[in-house]
Design brief:
Pnp Oxidase, Chain A, 129 residues, 40% strand, alpha+beta, globular, 8-stranded antiparallel beta sheet, single chain
Length: 129
């Protein structure tokens, strides 16, 4: 079930310097999904994901965000080790194109995650770093 506030574990995940690709999802005017990989960071003061890439303001995803004001992101992977240990962090929410920084900013309005505890060590860094 989606929540509207980030847990402590999710905040540790988002502020860890180790990064995997995000999958950024938007929809066009006809409702057709558009999904692309991209880089990301977290702005803890605003509780927003900052989604980067090449010439973001000129991309289709930026056009979709301008039109709808919404986006979704999945950041996922497998924890290291022999066992099947998938993890995921999913956000849906209000989005806007930040022309000054050349990014899309996504509010953490609806948050779902699982398996992050297998990824984040007791010291707070990812097990893969």
């Amino acid at each position: 079930m989606a929540r509207s506030q980030l847990s402590d574990l999710e905040r540790r995940f988002l502020t860890d310097p180790t990064r995997s690709l995000a999958r950024i999802a938007t929809v066009d005017a006809s409702g057709t999904p558009h999904v692309v990989p991209g880089g990301w960071s977290f702005d803890p003061a605003a509780d927003e994901l900052v989604l980067g890439g090449r010439a973001v303001p000129r991309t289709r995803r930026a056009g979709h965000v301008r039109a709808s004001g919404r986006a979704a992101v999945v950041i996922d992977g497998l924890a290291p080790g022999p066992a099947w240990s998938p993890w995921a962090f999913i956000v849906r929410g209000r989005a806007r194109v930040d022309e000054d920084s050349g990014t899309i900013r996504l509010a953490c309005d609806e948050v779902t995650s699982w398996g992050l505890d297998t990824l984040i060590t007791q010291e707070g860094s990812t097990a893969t770093s």
